Amino acid sequence: xxxxxxxxxxxxxxxxxxARDLSQAKVARLAGITVxxxxxxxxxxRAATPPVVAALARAMGVTTARIYGEPFADPSExxxxxxxxxxxxRRHTLPREDLLPPAELxxxxxxxxxLRAGTKYLQLLQILPTxxxxxxxxxxxxxxxxxxxxxxxxxxGCAYAVAHRMxxxxxADLIVSRQTWAAQQTWNPVAEVGAAWNEAGTYQSAGDYxxxxxxxxxxxxxxxxxxxxxxxxAIALGSLHLRGIVLASRAKDKAATATHxxxxxxxxxxxxxxxxxxxxxxxxxxxxxxELAAHVELEQPQEAVAAAEPFLREMPSELGPSRVGRFHIxxxxxxxxxxxxxxxxxxxxKAFEVAPQMAQIHPMAREVxxxxxxxxxxxxxxxxxxxxxxxxxx
Length: 394
Hints:
mainly alpha, 4 domains
């Protein structure tokens, strides 16, 4: 469309397919979808869902990142900051920053965690390169202090969130390796679970759902065979099962999805509310959100909408913008699948209200918005506003 800004995944698919001299029929067959489905994705009439993008990427021999493309209309500021972050991650044993007083470092670590939970990715990116160096310098000076290395692992967890959301898979892979290195210095199984959670996330982003599930299963086995004690164990194990729910549902494995959901439910049975620990959020509400998302991935939108209703009436106060914003994005996906365009727009509007930076760059928020905008751009001024903010319209 002439009115759109950054190229859509569908447009990128068409360009990549033609550059490889592949017909729609051949790519659709290799990806296991119909030609009609592929045509609608390329034309922007149907959302390019993560499993479809993964299948098409494999069919054409490209990465999912090539299909999703650049999520920013003007990426110059983000590019400069990401370059600084890459440098800090590369110098993981050679920090340039001076040691900070413990109280000041603790305050900066708290700020980073709050920015991550609040989906304020640009502000987080602005402080991460320096904070990584400061946290690492403190850990190196402290020798084998587990808490100091746990702080380093948590900062890398924040860095992963930024790289993941900003569609930087190579940087995310490097960050995960650094987070694993830092977590191993802590002798804390929960810190290692945080690294495994993000490692599985890199496979999820690449569409390698089977390998991601293998990472989750290995992490669960290691954790359960170790010295498990205290409330943190439920958060750690439960979070791994949440990641398993996403990976299994995107792989269309209903049995594995149900197994991970059942085990997560057992772990959350005695929890009154959700808890955030080492950048992992686990509890009954977040589990319900993941089950809702699984219904969407398993093409059960009616069940997803039904699961959303209680939270649309009353949202748990302990959940931050990251989780609430994702809930509204998944609700919008479900309502779009049911052709409830008004409901999808309302849900997407709530995501933009609660977590604007996430909504602007999240691939499925952008895809729902794109489909709605193509259908209703003249009749819905709210859609035009969201599209312009996201760089999808001029």
